[in-house]
User: Fold this.
Amino acid sequence: MDTCLPLRKAHGRRERGERERWQRRKLLSIVPAMFEPHAGEMAARPHREASNDGSCRESFEVVEGDAHAGLVIVCDHACNTIPAEYDNLGLPQGELERHIAYDIGVEGVTRALAGRLGVPAVLGTISRLVIDPNRGLDDPTLIMRLSDGAVVPGNADIDEDERQRRIARFYRPYDEAVGALIARSRAAGPEPAILSVHSFTPVWKGVPRPWHAGILWKKDARFAAPLLAALAADPQLVVGDNEPYSGGLDGDTMHRHATTKGLTDALIEIRQDLIADAAGIDEWVERLAGVLPGVLDDFRAHRSRAAENAFNGG
Assistant:
């Protein structure tokens, strides 16, 4: 029996197309004021998570929460911290405040949302430029030499010894922390859903992105489907289905810790200009905290029906 819910489209094609065209026109009208000097990227706005002050000293941080809650939040790219001995990988400070170094806004969203719902969370606290925890070990973009036009001098001549050193020091501890937190929730029961929090640039390669947020998923839509539907029910939002990226990159965090473990997951991408300051973060935390309890109820009801059907031989 197929236990995955079909992913429902929240809008008719015509309505969705009109809304996306309107959003493109709106974004094009404000791009000159928002972006410099890198087209397609939010201008740096100073706030705590964007500081490269060494406040995140480990490769991960766990936010404690109720292991019985049925939800674990994962935030791969929370910080842009680079250990002092790497000398900012040879990059000027301005590059470390760009999306190439971390996902702008997601640390604040993750911390506040976990606190609001009382659920556990784990955050990656080393810049993705040092090593990207959301990649498989065989992925050529695990350690980036060039990222969105920026050459990374400290990664240009990295050898295998240094690669293995970064894997051991930063990648594996974070990966193990994610696995341990999920295992703790599984042991406590019920089977948890996994929510991964990311953010994306409003403009990419000169093309405005109309979505306010996107829900990424691959095979199992039990959690992603009701989350997408709940967000898209707001007429003010354009919510992408596997936009602006396709879900389910083999070897990424959700593949390693959810897909291969038989757990349901959803990855939310929030547009960075919408969570660039405290007010935007608060708005999205309020929105997600408002819909997630009902979404989790839908997931649990689907799981119960599937178990009952399996018991009855359906």
Observations:
- Confidence is low (pLDDT under 50) at residues 1-56.
